[in-house]
Amino acid sequence: MRNSIFSIFLFLIPTLITAQTAPDFTVTDTKGNVHQLYADYLDKGKTVVIKLFFVGCPPCTNIAPDFQHLYESWGAGQDEVEFISFTTRAIDSNSGINNYLSGLGVTNPASGTGGGFEASAPYRESEFGDYWGTPSFAVIAPDGEVVYFSSSSNIIAVDNAIRETGASGTGLIEDPTNYTFTFADLFGNPVENVSVKIVDLNPGNNTEYDVPLNSLNEFSIQDFDEEFPGITNPAFRFIPNETADHRLSSLDLSTINKHILDLEPFTNPEMSLAADANGSNSVSSADMIIIRKLILNLLDEFPSGLSNYIIIDNDRPVEIIPGDEVSIYVKMIKRGDVR
């Protein structure tokens, strides 16, 4: 599996388009072969992927290996999907394009002065969605509908769009990203019954999903877009069990008292966070009163809706690294627990 494919997973959203029919084209590629969109491909039940580029386009050069892998994964034009590249510059000759793509190891048909520049016009003119430059991709279903158009380097999105046309083939078989979560308190002790959600960090997007951890706090993502639709800026969010035993004792009170009296002040700032039972951002006798009431069962929760735990670095960005094992250590400071 080529992990480099997924380093360009940018969570870009393709421009939404209404159902529109692709215009026909007849072009001559860099090898002298003639291609007609409908007669050669769509009318025969094939899906067609159009890539817009130009000779020397930096991001096109960067994604060339991944684009070639996508092309090969769908049969390199021999099965139910054909890939054709069109230049966006009238000055790109077929011979110049041939030299450029050959040097990158890209083998799908491409056209410039053979009609490719003219064939790219409807896409450059934003007839199927906003055009922002190269590379851009269009995916055309066998019925002629342009089901996807986007100016981005999101190879995975192109792969998914091909699947949506019903084309048979393997495409990019994604290895899952495997996550293992470790939840520990200030002293390294395990914290039980922590829930995990995937949320969107974009303002105004309240989409969220529960993460189904197994008994070992493990979880895998195979296809993020399919499993978590509507999330474009994902993060793991950790939710402590608020009904857990407070686990506080007179020894915690004694330790906090020594800190307040400056007999044994805390040297670790996280100890001060734990001792702050009322959320005042300071440690005082008021915190000791709350902790004492919790110990005596005169209170059953911290005041003002404060959580049992203070989570260090919550909302961790989700890393998609297919085939990798990702370990995530979550420090959860138990409020009031300082020993």
Mean pLDDT rating? 90
Q: What is the alpha-carbon Rg in Å?
A: 28 Å
- The percentage of residues in β strands lies in 15-25%
How far apart the termini lie comes to 47 Å
Strand order of the largest sheet: 5-4-3-6-7
Tally of individual domains = 3
Level-1 CATH class name of the largest domain: Alpha Beta
CATH architecture annotation name of the largest domain: 3-Layer(aba) Sandwich
Q: Pick out the low-confidence regions.
A: 1-18
Q: What's the helix and strand layout?
A:
Blueprint: E1 26-28, E2 34-36, H1 37-41, E3 47-53, H2 58-73, E4 81-87, H3 94-104, E5 110-111, H4 116-119, H5 121-124, E6 136-140, E7 146-150, H6 155-164, E8 177-184, E9 195-200, E10 208-210, E11 218-221, H7 224-227, E12 234-239, H8 250-260, H9 269-275, H10 285-295, E13 309-311, E14 316-317, E15 325-334
Parallel strand pairs: 3-4, 4-5, 8-15
Antiparallel strand pairs: 1-2, 3-6, 6-7, 8-11, 9-10, 9-12, 12-14, 13-15
